[in-house]
Amino acid sequence: MFYFVIDILGVIAFAISGVLVAMDKKLDLFGVFIIAFVTGVGGGTLRDLLIGNTPVLWMQQPFYIYTVIVTVIFAIVFRDKLKYLRTSLFLFDTIGIGLYTMVGIEKGLNIGLLPIMCISLGTITACFGGVIRDILCNEIPVIFSRKEIYATACIAGGVSYFLIRKLPLDNAYAYVAAILIIIGIRILAVKFKIALPNIYGSESNK
Amino acid sequence: MFYFVIDILGVIAFAISGVLVAMDKKLDLFGVFIIAFVTGVGGGTLRDLLIGNTPVLWMQQPFYIYTVIVTVIFAIVFRDKLKYLRTSLFLFDTIGIGLYTMVGIEKGLNIGLLPIMCISLGTITACFGGVIRDILCNEIPVIFSRKEIYATACIAGGVSYFLIRKLPLDNAYAYVAAILIIIGIRILAVKFKIALPNIYGSESNK
Amino acid sequence: MFYFVIDILGVIAFAISGVLVAMDKKLDLFGVFIIAFVTGVGGGTLRDLLIGNTPVLWMQQPFYIYTVIVTVIFAIVFRDKLKYLRTSLFLFDTIGIGLYTMVGIEKGLNIGLLPIMCISLGTITACFGGVIRDILCNEIPVIFSRKEIYATACIAGGVSYFLIRKLPLDNAYAYVAAILIIIGIRILAVKFKIALPNIYGSESNK
């Protein structure tokens, strides 16, 4: 139940981010819906395709599509008020990537993948909805270019999970700890403006 | 046989639309062929991937690839005459989306998906070849931004199908009726310039 | 063993080409890694998805991801020296497409596909990593627009393979011959500036 609520909140946060990008691009109603849907479930869909888990998740669980439909209607009707939700959306999104990373990792473990592959799957689940959103909107994916700690938080959380799992603790502790680590890193990085190292030398500091 | 002819006409119409977009972008011969192919079979390919129906359809039925090869040669040779075909192309395309929507819906029913998922699959089959075409050509997909009744006609036809199926009629009637509804909505929408509701308020009417 | 070395060299060459494009776009460290990875394994991943060979290859063989990680670090550290490697990179890339084409063709044969589908799979394996790279970097794929003999060399090599196989020779000869034909066509086309036929008439020669 707790899991379910978080999952819905994650889809809502991702879908709203999709609506915002789509409306910036002046897409029509159908386009806004598709972008919202893809942002919400695209990462999990890509994960399911890569591991052959088909029909993909959203085809088997209708609450995803209903959640996106309601979210899009809500977001369009209250589009002028969405800016007041910015902090809540950041929180949902951050909780969402924490949870989605672990969902992806678990799916990888279930089919016997190596830890590094599980972490890749988790990061794809959390981050690639946004990548597909940006490609469909004809932009370079924002997580590839902002030097933000976003996917990096997912990777760090995934690594932590496999380290904590080695301790003599119940697996559930490692699971929850990893989610909290992802959320914590993401929040601290935004608060203290911690970024990825600059790989372009001083000339790009202009 | 009838089905087969319509399927070929649909692939031809989609492939020619791919050639036209690719030539606008001044792609080379290989690029034009890939765009034509992707426009013709991309929707069905995405559908097959999402439901795990692999190898995807065009790998199992060679007539798709041959149809596209012949269409591309024809379209390049007669490129100056293609504009005279505009009405025929619109008709083929419209018949194509009607048929493809129902093909996708049927595939969804065969694997026991819910009606809303079947309608999604049908719409993906009919419309996402064009989406992939536009992404490969570095454009925002045209069906996301024109406020046109295109995907909407597929969705409406799919909903009609599941409603008509409840009547005490042979299933074939519902199938054909849904195709005609899609074609009818599309033609009427173009004829009477019916569009999706504007979600941007008056400032976007400039 | 020989096969393995070539495969690694191919991944390295493709990954470096990804790093170069990603750094041109000023992507951050994460973006550079993803583009390098996608360029290196994207073609094989798309092939595996289309034929339903999941989890896709790189999830089952960790050396791909490790090779890309090492290559990206190397390429970033020595970014100013990469231009001196241009000839080696061209050779690795050319050997890579030769080998990848045949890997794709073999996978198609293993599941009983027709020759034309095997050749398509081979060409996808060799060329579509670069296509996905360009899409993620918001460019029209370079192999669609340069009139270069690149994918065409893969197709020609694939056709040769199926012709040579008909001779009363061990299959290994046909395999190696096809790889050499692809490499040979590619090198000759670059050396003598042989291009695809112009399909736009004289007005595009401006």
Quick tags:
mainly alpha; membrane (chains A, B, C); 8 helices; transmembrane helix (chains A, B, C); Trimeric intracellular cation channel family protein (chains A, B, C); transmembrane (chains A, B, C); cell membrane (chains A, B, C); 206 residues; homotrimer
- Average pLDDT, all residues of chain A: 90
Briefly note the structural class of the backbone of chain A: mainly alpha
- Give helix and strand order of chain A, one letter per element, not per position: HHHHHHHH
Largest interface in this structure: A-B, 27 and 32 residues
Q: Describe the largest sheet of chain A.
A: none
Q: Provide the gyration radius of chain A in Å.
A: 17 Å
Q: Which stretches of chain A of 5+ consecutive residues score pLDDT under 50? A: none
Tell me the number of helical segments of chain A per DSSP (H or I, 4 or more residues long).
8
What's the count of strands of chain A? 0
Helix content of chain A: over 70%
What can you tell me about this protein's structure?
Three copies of one chain form a homotrimer. Chain A has a domain of 138 residues. The first copy, chain A, is globular, with a radius of gyration of 17 Å. Helices cover 71% and strands 0% of the residues of chain A. By secondary structure, chain A is mainly α. In chain A, helix 1 crosses helix 4, helix 1 packs across helix 5 and helix 5 crosses helix 7. Chains A, B, C: It is a multi-pass membrane protein. Chains A, B, C: One of its GO terms (cellular component) is plasma membrane. Chains A, B, C: It is found in: Cell membrane.
